[in-house]
Amino acid sequence: PVASALEGDLVTSADLRDSILRHLTYDLGKEPEMAEIHDWRIALSLALRERIVDHWFASMRTARHSGAKRVYYLSMEFLIGRLLEDSMVNLGLEEAADRALTDLGLNLQDILADEPDAALGNGGLGRLAACFMESLATVGCPAFGYGIRYEHGLFKQRFVQGRQVEEPEDWLQQRPAWEFERSDIAFKLCFGGEVSEDGGKAVWHPEEAVVAKAYDTPIISWQGRWANTLRLWSARPLHGFDLERFNRGEFAAAAEPEALARTISRVLYPDDTTEQGKELRLKQEFFFTAASLRDILRRFEAEHDNLRLLPQKAAIQLNDTHPAIAGPEMVRLLHDERGMELDEAIVTARACLSYTNHTLMPEALERWPEHLMHRLLPRHMQLIERIDAAHAVKQPTRQVSALEHGEVKMGELAFMMAHKVNGVSALHTELMKSTVFAELHRLHPDRIVNQTNGVTPRRWVLSANRRLSALITDTIGEGWVDDLEQLEQLEPYFGDAGFLDRYAAAKRENKADLSNWLATEMDLKVDPTALFDVQIKRIHEYKRQHMNLLETIALWKEIAANPDAGWTPRVKIFAGKAAPGYVFAKEIVHLINEVAAVINADPVTAPYLKVAFLPNYNVTLAERLIPAADLSEQISTAGKEASGTGNMKFALNGALTVGTLDGANVEIRERVGEENFFLFGMTADEVIARREVPGHAAQAIEADARLAGALADIGEGRFSPDDPGRYHGVTGNLSHHDYFLVCSDFTAYWEAQRRIDAAFADQNAWMRMAAINTARSGWFSSDRAIRGYMADIWNAEALEVPGPG
Ligand code: 26Q
User: Fold this and answer.
1) Interface pTM, i.e. ipTM
2) How far does the signal peptide extend, from start to end residue (predicted)?
3) 358 counts as catalytic
């Protein structure tokens, strides 16, 4: 009701239509007769952006005048997806837009579908940052997101004969509709050179400089009550064009400095463990971190004159270690550039900074060679040594250091320079304390805290699943949208005639939509009443897509051998990208596609089993798949998935989880109830113990004929007759090494899947379990997560824009 009072009643569809036409004509310079779909889409976006701006200015003013602490979220990645529907829904302008466009002879759905995804992130970490931006606005926390305006986001994925082929992503090809270019907000950033001493003062003489230029995107809250800024930095040359060289006739060379500087914000690094240690990546990290800190200090100094107040006015959250250079850079800004005592500068920086860890996997923890750090950031290398030494003084036994084997360990550095360090699920946080950060935790027992991840219900329920949302709102009103635990109020209605029928109907229609889409887009016919079994996430050994595939092969063989045994029809859906340099992951992609081709061509098993690997997984595809899922695959090796966030989106949308006790699965199961969750597999402790058993994989294969059969089929080339040995790497790894314990968990996984078959056969009971998952997952809202950070880490308060009158 507030939304319509705010906007819907005031802004009629006629007003919106006029402003769409005005933007089309005067901003895009197009006549309506000549306009194409993307012109209309941009005109609509500009019409909405215009309405966001008023809320945005009001919020910024309120934040300034209140003197409240601001939150700064520093992240290498923001995996935003599309923004048009989000903005429209949050402004309460959906009906108005629909009518306005109909008046203009256009279709809103076509226009929404035209928007490219902003894919400035790899996966979970980047999507979390995007959910957090929306929730920061919705809870009214004054905040800025800071990141990089990559020219090219995450690569696009195609399949060529089943193999993944990467293509560059080019989201800026079309005019960006949401951002404001801030030519006036630009900072010069330096690299390289050397450090001299001048009367006890360090002076850095850099050798290279680039300019960071700001681009702002306003992020509007649910019902337009608040808006924050996502500020992304783009790299520019300090001196654009070498006129002297141009005049000498060296035309190409004259443009060189420009191209070189821009390289820094050219492309997002795919999460790729083999790509680490790249100099350009370190430059990117320093580039956006240093620009953001400069901006934060500039804002602080415009409002206050005592640097000691900084920790009361600025909370700076580091999204993983990617911006961990913030520690030394902030010390440099306070000490070298503003004359604060070194010790006080360290204490002040630490009081502002906090660090979120997203992984415990040793190969994913960032380390930079000291010589590279020294060459690129000589003053920072000195300060890192000072910070490390200052830390060592307090623990004379010196058990822990940020410097080891000629490398800077960014996790340790971030920990030492943060007043709070958090994990992203209860289990993950406990494992941080007992493994990677055990020593540091002993020294600073109050520093590590947990903040279990969450997802924004506006995008992941309200927009993505219209049918379910309508049912929820009809049943309990609209309050759930920004108070998601109200979903609990649904449960008393489960006994009422009609509720579970409507719940089932919503799921059925979502599945019918997806079936039609698979038929037209993928040329794949599926039974829309089958169990939709979905695993969508980056391809990684620890996520164990190959265990799912082995179960698929085993199931297919069993159905083929005994087709009349009353099988529960299933559609196995996979989607996800493999990092370009991750050979094993790319082989898994290829294998899934080859297995899918064989299974889908089998007329005997066709009524019961189909397999689809959907190309180019992204936020938009997730929004299409999750509402249509019956089963959510969360099957990582226990102890490896820090949290997962897809698991939460599925549970909210009424998919049951088949999962291990890993990451936030543990907390999902606690909340939805063990009888509404399909648990299997070893615990994190059992995983550690199992690895010590010599020949654990061979043993597991020996004990399970289904597993042995599936592996043998792959090994003999049943799915790759043109090259029977193609997957010897995969089968060899699984049979002999199997670090992620695919074989040892296989039997338990198979059995869980057969329990699922049986449960799905009773549709009434299944739909009840699905509805319980929805009703009991409200805690996984990112609004709850953000309030947790505000209370336990940032000590920040929420504000409200003064209403009219
Ligand atoms: C590091 C150095 C060089 C190049 C790339 C990287 C890099 C990039 C991205 C390292 C890691 C990432 C992304 C990590 C990530 O997405 N982690 C996920 O974070 C989610 C949000 O907390 C969790 O839910 C997932 O469990 C976790 O895997």
Assistant:
1) 0.99
2) none
3) yes
